[in-house]
Specification:
Elements (H helix, E strand, L loop, with lengths): L1 E3 L10 H8 L3 H8 L7 H14 L15 E6 L5 H17 L2 E6 L9 H16 L4 E5 L5 H9 L4 E4 L11 E4 L1 H14 L5 E5 L5 H17 L8 E3 L4 H12 L7 E4 L2 H13 L9 E6 L2 H5 L5 E4 L2 H16 L8 E4 L2 E3 L11
Parallel strand pairs: 1-3, 2-3, 2-4, 4-5, 5-6, 6-12, 7-8, 7-9, 9-10, 10-11
Antiparallel strand pairs: 11-13
Length: 353
């Protein structure tokens, strides 16, 4: 069963209100409510007085022998087909394991490193303790040092799904074979006869983006094709930025005849830039994407792309989390699932009408 996290609508004050009234953290207030002993007497007294003063109603404790365990899935947004694929994989694996999943999204996260972000993330993580989560799946680009410290302090097992930045040693993560995907995409264009192949990468110094570009360069080197530094552009996985970078490639003295785009979303921006110039795919430019989201099939012409098994990655992450919840450690902290090329109509030999 999947539930979406939301603000409490039950009568009476929330535990967060009680904690604020008593001048303590939410986890500390939760310990008092649940009869934990590791709270100082004075702190316990303040919390108890706040509970009585505010009329907080203690919820009955779950029968943990019968109630399913609860895990959290934290994503950046639920509005993309990417997140939909991740949610689908988690939901199926959770059903098989008899788990309940709470899904929360955070599209309005404050600026990184700001005091507002510290308070925002502290409140978010405190809520995990309050609702008794057994583990967390993070489908976010990265976590802060404070978040890692909080998770370690509370001994909450967690797994990262496709992190954009290399996690600290010991952190368990699941991703795709990005380097091999970059090789496969580039080799496909080289086999068609393209020698002027550009790449539109994601964020600079990003884990998956760097691996895909490294695969691109490796394929060029293996084929004896000269690497052109001006053919490597970064667009941060943003559609509008990809449109701008594609315009820059088209304005080069010797523009490419093909482009490997490191996400399907950016490939849509490439299509737009080509359309603005009156150019067509694949007659004037062959395009290969990465992800194989539904948009790759809907666009015209349908996009040749590298399939990233998002649902399978999410399901694998949940199974690893389940192992950790049971006190086991995975054999490896990094698990990579295979990618494969899905050929459609957006690639052809250069100059073919």
């Amino acid at each position: 069963m999947v539930r979406t996290a939301s603000a409490s609508t039950s009568a009476g004050p929330t535990l967060a209100v009680v904690a604020r009234e008593a001048g303590v953290s939410v986890p500390t207030a939760s310990k008092v409510v649940n009869g934990r002993e590791d709270v100082a007497p004075e702190t316990r007294r303040r919390v108890a007085e706040a509970l009585d003063r505010l009329g907080y109603v203690r919820r009955p404790r779950f029968d943990t022998a019968r109630a399913p365990r609860l895990v959290d899935l934290v994503v950046h947004s639920l509005e993309s087909s990417w997140s939909g694929a991740v949610l689908h994989g988690v939901e199926e694996a959770a059903y098989d394991a008899g788990l309940e999943v709470v899904v929360s999204a955070d599209p309005h996260r404050p600026r990184a490193g700001s005091p507002e972000e510290t308070r925002h993330e502290g409140g978010r993580l405190d809520r995990l303790v309050v609702r008794g989560t057994s583990g967390v799946l993070f489908n976010l680009a990265e976590l802060t040092a404070a978040q890692y410290a909080w998770l370690g302090h509370h001994r909450i097992p967690f797994v990262m799904i496709d992190p954009a930045v290399e996690p600290p040693p010991g952190v368990v993560s699941v991703g795709a074979a990005n380097w091999q995907g970059g090789v496969t995409a580039t080799e496909h264009l080289l086999r068609l006869g393209h020698e002027r192949v550009a790449v539109l990468a994601g964020r600079r110094r990003g884990l998956c983006s760097d691996a895909r570009v490294a695969g691109y360069r490796s394929a060029l080197a293996s084929a004896g094709v000269r690497h052109r530094p001006e053919y490597v552009r970064h667009a941060g996985f943003d559609r509008a930025a990809a449109r701008r970078r594609m315009r820059e490639l088209l304005d080069l003295p010797v523009p490419p005849t093909a482009v490997f785009v490191c996400s399907d979303a950016m490939a849509l921006g490439v299509y737009e830039a080509l359309g603005e110039r009156g150019l067509t795919v694949p007659r004037d430019m062959s395009v290969v994407g990465f992800d194989d989201l539904p948009e790759a099939r809907w666009v015209t012409p349908a996009l040749t792309t590298v399939r990233q098994p998002l649902s399978e990655m999410a399901a694998t992450a949940l199974r690893l989390l389940l192992l950790m919840m049971d006190g086991h450690r995975p054999e490896s902290t990094r698990t990579e699932l295979s990618t494969r090329l899905v050929e459609r109509a957006s690639t052809a030999p250069p100059g073919i009408a």
